[in-house]
Automatic annotation (TrEMBL):
Keywords: Disulfide bond, Electron transport, Redox-active center, Transport. The lineage of its organism: Bacteria, Pseudomonadati, Pseudomonadota, Alphaproteobacteria, Acetobacterales. Belongs to the thioredoxin family. It comes from the Bacteria. InterPro entries: Thioredoxin, Thioredoxin-like_sf, Thioredoxin_CS, Thioredoxin_domain. The keyword Acetylation does not apply. CDD domains: TRX_family. It holds the Pfam family Thioredoxin. The active site is at 30 (nucleophile), 33 (nucleophile). This is Thioredoxin. Disulfide bonds join 30-33. GO terms for cellular component: cytosol.
Length: 105
């Protein structure tokens, strides 16, 4: 359900999206990133049609995280109308992530 986004596709896939987009900034070597991945997959299914969930690998795409001030991972940012609307840093249980999404939409 989640889609990989690159530095090259970020503008089209996220900033120009008509729907809100949750961006997961992550890396292969990041344990907490891997621990929240199943929750993000579940939430992507739950919010299908209301919220798009995408992933940006910070090692392969260094420009985008820098542009948005990502200093630690996992960092989740919800973009609405091409602008960051809410940020969550660090791993959290699915219930906390869901509450954060609900509050942010």
């Amino acid at each position: 359900m989640t889609k990989a986004v690159t530095d090259e596709t970020f503008e089209t896939d996220v900033l120009k999206s008509s729907a809100p987009v949750l961006v997961d900034f992550w890396a292969e070597w990041c344990g907490p990133c891997r621990s929240i991945a199943p929750s993000l997959e579940d939430l992507a299914k739950e919010y299908e049609g209301k919220l798009e969930v995408v992933k940006v690998n910070i090692d392969e795409n260094p420009m985008t995280p820098t542009n948005f001030g990502v200093r630690g991972i996992p960092t989740l940012i919800i973009f609405k109308d091409g602008k960051p609307a809410a940020t969550q840093v660090g791993a959290a249980p699915k219930s906390v992530l869901k509450a954060w999404i609900e509050k942010s939409l």
